[in-house]
Design brief:
There is one protein chain. The chain is mainly alpha-helical and about 190 residues long. The chain has one domain. The longest helix is centred in the last third of the chain and has 35 residues. The radius of gyration is 23 Å and the shape is globular. The two termini are about 45 Å apart.
Length: about 190
């Protein structure tokens, strides 16, 4: 019997009475948000300015579409960069939504939980985008622009709205399926 305590003792949950027991789960929840923020911090350096990304992106576009596509390269490069803003911060808002959704687990209403998580995701996106553009305003080859912050928040709002619609549709579908099955009706 003594060996069972040694074997199973390894798998026993920690019984630490430290005040930091809540930190580990919260860190696991918010670590993807921190990782995405770090990616934005790296991309916000002078190495990723338009003057440095133009040539490599142009070679990729020429390889895919040929040299004729690069007649209007400045416009194409601008569209690629702004699309990156829209999609990148839109995905960031979904990562923030996930963390907020898990954190708000004990909210009374599912709809209220959704709305709060989406609101927090868009707020976090606004804060990170603002900090990013503020930082860029101090770099010699970058500019901090309010229009980029607005574009980032628009990407966040668009993807959050799409996710909201998908979640509502799935919830409605689950209710319909549950009404059609007699077992679900008995459980309700």
């Amino acid at each position: 019997m003594a060996s069972s305590s040694i074997i199973y003792g390894v798998y026993a949950p920690p019984t630490s009475n430290s005040g930091y027991a809540w930190l580990r789960p919260q860190l696991r929840i918010w670590l993807p948000v921190l990782a995405c923020s770090m990616v934005f911090a790296v991309e916000s350096t002078s190495y990723f300015g338009a003057d440095r990304t133009s040539a490599p992106l142009r070679r990729v576009v020429e390889a895919i579409f040929g040299y004729d596509a690069c007649v209007h390269w400045n416009l194409i490069h601008h569209i690629i960069r702004k699309t990156g803003h829209f999609i990148g911060y839109g995905v960031f808002s979904l990562v923030c939504f996930r963390a907020s959704w898990i954190t708000l687990l004990h909210t009374a209403s599912r709809l209220l939980r959704q709305l709060r998580a989406h609101g927090l995701a868009i707020l976090f996106t606004f804060l990170v985008a603002s900090a990013d553009e503020f930082h860029q305003s101090f770099l010699p080859n970058r500019t901090g622009q309010l229009s980029d912050v607005l574009l980032d928040v628009a990407g966040a709002a668009a993807l959050c709205f799409a996710l909201f619609l998908v979640m509502q549709a799935l919830e409605m579908r689950a209710k319909v399926v549950c009404r059609l099955q007699p077992v679900c009706a008995e459980l309700s």
